[in-house]
Amino acid sequence: MILFIPSCLSDENSNDDLSLLDKESITFRGEDNSLYTGSVFNAYFPESDDGYDVIVTSDKPGLAQGKIEKDGRVKATITIVDLHNKPNMFEKYEGAVGSLDGLPMIPKGNKGTAVLVANRFQVQVRSIDPEFTEPYRMAWLRKFNISKLNDLAE
Fold it and tell me: Can you tell me the distance from the alpha carbon of 28 to that of 124, in angstroms, rounded to the nearest whole number?
């Protein structure tokens, strides 16, 4: 179960299969109308799984954030960022020595792991609990709906 707080993709015509949406039907924001609204990204977050709950906590133009909880304790935060207006962020991925399923992967400090999807979106998992180590972060990065997020960038 995914809990959406405070907003989600919902209206009388909403459909769980976002492949039915065309890009023209998705709201854009930003000075040049080029950033996806954060609520669009909520559907690409991982599903709750194996006793872990995924909770969306915030969405803003170009950004959606959430957290992963288990037994009421926050284990990690999750984020999808639209990098369209942040060209300096791409430089960090140019020298990426790691990869995750073919995506450039970089560390984000000692507690974070991020991948670049379709040269447009940064997907990140950051540990809050010290026991939520890099193997957990990598496993949770794989749970994002990367293929649909890749389609969104096209």
Answer: 22
Residue 128 has which token pair? 């809050």
Paired strand residues for 59: 64
State the Cα angle at 80 between 96 and 135, rounded to 5°.
Answer: 55
Sorted by where each begins, the domain ranges of the chain are: 2-9+26-153
Whether this model's pTM surpasses 0.85: no
**pLDDT confidence bin for 92, thresholds 50/70/90:** confident
For 59, residues 6+ apart whose C-beta sits below 8 A from its C-beta are 7, 37, 38, 39, 41, 42, 65
Q: 49: which DSSP letter?
A: B
Contact assessment for residue 47 and residue 16, using Cβ atoms and an 8 Å cutoff: no
